[in-house]
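job 3f2a | input accepted
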Amino acid sequence: MLIDVYDFDGTIYDGDSTADFVLFCLPRHPELIGGLPRIAFAALRLAVKNYNLTQFKTVLFGEMSKRFSLEKEAEAFWQDMKTRAKLGPWFFDTPRDLPIVIASASPEFELKHAAKILGVQNLIGTQCDMVTGALTGKNCKGAQKIERIREVFGEFEVRAMYTDDAKADGPLLAIAQERYIVTHGKVEKQA
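job 3f2a | predicted structure (191 res):
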């Protein structure tokens, strides 16, 4: 199967949607402040390489899920016009003659509403239990994106790969026929 693959954060979305989601939830749920010490400690452990992203995100989403519905807040996040304004207009103008896959390290529960807005049916992201906040697999980054796409589609080929981070998405770029780097909505084809 031949597909086009798009990273999400920094590519389709100008910024980090998970960070923006957390900042969106804080004023709506001030009780989340009670979880900040545990989140901050997990962030410190991540910074000193004593935690990986999977462990950090499990703490983050675990603290959030104790206090509110991740699903409902993600829907509200994508209904917000400030959030939608960060979706790159260039994406809507890109030809869609092949199946499109969004492959992201952000959690699927958060991005499924964005995928609907974008008209994309194939979303591959970090999997998270919305009740406990625990990640149910590995953080969907780097080579893990290829494994997850293969789980869903079987064998595949990538015609075009769009990303803002050539290093993080190096494995997908390496197998793509066409490579594009996106910087704040500016798309540049790579050799």
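job 3f2a | The longest strand covers residues 100-107.
job 3f2a | closed
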